[in-house]
Amino acid sequence: MALKDIKQKIQATKRMNKVTRAMEAVSAVKMRKTQNAAFEGRAYARAALAILTRLSGTENVKRHPLAQDKGGKKIALLLLTSDKGLAGGLNAGVLKKAMEALEGREKGDVVVYAYGRKGEEFFRNRGYTIAKSYINKGDDVALEVMEEIAQELSAGFLAGEFDKIITVYTNFKSTFEQIPTMRRLLPLSLPALTEIVEGIVPAKGKWSDEVNLVAPPAYEVEPSGDEILGVLVPRLVAVSLYHMLLEAKASEHSARMVAMKNASDKSKEVVHDLTRKFNKVRQAAITREVSEIIAGSLVT
Q1: Residue range 202-217, pLDDT digits in tens
Q2: d(C-alpha 128, C-alpha 65), whole Å
Q3: What is the pLDDT of residue 205?
Q4: Measured by CB atoms within 10 angstroms of the end CB, which terminus of the chain is less buried, N or C?
Q5: What does the pLDDT read at residue 177?
Q6: For residue 223, what pLDDT is reported?
Q7: pLDDT tens for each residue of 122-138
Q8: pLDDT at residue 211, as a whole number
Q9: How far apart are CA 215 and CA 190, in angstroms?
Q10: Residue 296: per-residue pLDDT
Q11: Comparing C-alpha atoms, which of 154, 153, 155, 116 is closest to residue 133?
């Protein structure tokens, strides 16, 4: 390889290093913001879902239409991915988990609600029905958006459009660990909700007051159980979805920051290796020229 080509590669790699370092800095700021939001929302999400978990074991909820296990094949998949790439294997892990959840099911029995462009493109290209798609660019998402999705999913479940609703997202554990996770939203059940609540990890340490998830024998509900549960259940499902979105946001920016840091470190290694190669080639060229001069002087 000519010296000129090596020098151009070194300059191009240095420019790439500046880009990845800038993206790393931006992702670090967003990561801290979204991590704080996820941490601050965990206590609220756990308490709200604990209410729903306790209710799920009561006779009122067991008779509620949203708790009826229809045993059918139709399934609604709510997928939480990002709109942008450059986040390592974050989206790939979520998509792989989603495909595992749908294993053995016909495409005609699956309806996809995609929150994020990566998930929408993946399933649309494979022939799945996309019922609705949402842009996932901003970090500030209003709870009303999740309430709208929860209402639509609940209405579809009640209307018999699908018999089961699951969501797949990335659960944030730490800056270096994000776990693709699948949860069942509807029909309501004590084991499924207990799994969601227990999966909400505290920011640090252990919970000082563990939530008792054993369902009481009965609740006295006014004005009527059906009327209250018809409003309460979709709202608590929306809280669950909002919590999952916060976890997914924290995971996205953490994964992107780590990916950009790895890219920056790798570009430094490439520059170092190319510089050594450049010096070797230049030294070889100098040695060859000196040898030619000496050989010419001996001939004369």
Answers
A1: 545 444 344 454 555 5
A2: 27
A3: 46
A4: C
A5: 84
A6: 65
A7: 999 988 989 888 888 87
A8: 47
A9: 8
A10: 72
A11: 116
Two tokens, residue 241: 């979805």
What's the token pair of residue 43? 């206590």
Give the strand pairing for 110-115 and 75-80.
parallel
Contacts of 248 (CB under 8 A, 6+ apart): 80, 81, 82, 169, 170, 172
Q: For residues 126 and 105, give the distance between their C-alpha atoms in angstroms, rounded to a whole number.
A: 14
User: What does the DSSP assignment read for the chain?
Assistant: --HHHHHHHHHHHHHHHHHHHHHHHHHHHHHHHHHHHHHHHHHHHHHHHHHHHHHHTSHHHHTSGGG-----S-EEEEEE--S---STTHHHHHHHHHHHHTTT--GGGEEEEEESHHHHHHHHHTT-EEEEEE----S---HHHHHHHHHHHHHHHHTTS-SEEEEEEEEEEETTEEEEEEEEEES--HHHHHHHHHT---SSS--SS----PPPS----SS-HHHHHHHHHHHHHHHHHHHHHHHHHHHHHHHHHHHHHHHHHHHHHHHHHHHHHHHHHHHHHHHHHHHHHHHHHHH-
**What is residue 1's predicted lDDT score, i.e. its pLDDT?**
67
